[in-house]
Amino acid sequence: MARDEQVMSPSYTRTEPIVAKEGWGCYVRDVDGNVFLDLSSGMFVLNYGYSHPKLIQAVERQMTKLTHFAGTDFYYESQVELAERLVKITQGNFAKRVYFGNSGAEAVEAAFKCARWHARRPRMIAYTGAFHGRTFGAMSLSSTSVTHHRYFAPLVPGVSFMPYPYCYRCLFNQEYPGCDFLCFEFIREYLRKVVPPEEVAGVIVEPIQGGSGYIIPPPEYHPMLKELCDEHDWIFIADEIQTGLGRTGKMFAMEHWKVIPDIVCVAKALAGGIAPIGATIASAKVMDWEPGAHASTFGGNLIACVAALEGLNILEKQKLVRRAAELGELALGRLQELVEESRLVGEVRGRGLMLAVEIVKDKQTKERAVKERNAVVRAALNRGLIVFRGGRSIIRIAPPLTISQRELELGLNILGEALREVERKC
User: Fold this and answer.
1) 251-303 per-position pLDDT tens digit
2) How wide is the angle at C-alpha 365 spanned by C-alphas 363 and 367, nearest 5°?
3) Are the CB atoms for 349 and 355 separated by under 8 Å?
4) Domains of the chain with bracketed CATH
5) What are phi and psi of 183, to 5 degrees?
6) For the whole prediction, is pTM greater than 0.85?
7) Measured between alpha carbons, how far is 408 from 370 in angstroms, rounded to an integer?
């Protein structure tokens, strides 16, 4: 860690003193020999766990043949095969096309550019609390923290932010379901007074907001947003970078709302942590840009494509989407007990194995307990459990989809112990 501080960019957000050496399944071992149960999936990347043998075997076979070929200028089978698989598993019975990049941010950049190119309109609608990445386009669509924007202005112009439906902390001091959806009416009022709807290319939204703490909209919200897009001929972009590929108990989270996006962005879990990859899957009608309009030297790299294909095989053969739904229901039930047991837990929420615990100082006022949340995360770490921060006072839980019920219960037990320890001290 001391060596790291001398040479690595200080912009990285290291918060936990873990120096990893090896991993398997849902466990990781550090250089001192400590073993941790990881309920964060390596920042939501390892849906298939650490060092899945089938992923490693698939990559080893490919590495003995060919490691790189210029997929932007020539052809290779694994790239088109992966595109065919992604077209098949994403929602919508219509022709689609796929763009490959190297990350979630690049998938979002491609969606942003594609929407503007197709619509010939300059504006975009995004959401407060959204996180889409740190490149300029993705950052311009994000609003999780001013840290991501500070001193980088001017950002990409034309982005307007709308309030995300965060029912536990409603900006309009309403309670669902008797709220008349003021958060959605705000958008219509904004279109009447600020942004001409005919100048908007599209909307980008996370089905469940990730960085802000796994915030889940009410069931009516996304369908209402889709109707608004259809009304004004906007492109509906779903950022499924954290939520996609089985994480929420559906292949893609928008399936919970029965909404079919025009563009879907995926990354993180796509290649199971073997190699960087991101993908932008769009209707062929929308992805109609001309050759040279957008490309990436390493996008859809051979190794990444082979790993992603094997990952999709694992997802299907081991029925991990259904498994995430079943284990998630069990875990959410266990976490609900913490609301009753702990004075620090204001709310728990989740879909599938995408779960959140909101830590508060007072359950009535809902005052955020930032120090207490950080203390719980560290107390869990000292017991050998990795969980991840989210929002200002939220703990995110997103284990590998391959985790056993026993391991999941062990992790939740450790989290409960950490909560009780912090509660005794504060």
Assistant:
1) 999 999 999 999 999 999 999 999 999 999 999 999 999 999 999 999 999 99
2) 85
3) yes
4) 2-51+319-425 (3.90.1150.10), 58-317 (3.40.640.10)
5) -65, -35
6) yes
7) 25
Helices (H), 127-244: 136-140, 182-193, 221-232
Q: Beta partners for 25?
A: 50
Cβ atoms of 263 and 238 within 8 Å: the answer is yes
* Closest among 83, 92, 48, 47 to 255, alpha carbons compared: 92
Residue 192 corresponds to which amino acid? R
135 in Cβ contact with 142 (< 8 Å): no
Place of tokens 């939740």: 412
Structure tokens at 393: 């006072």
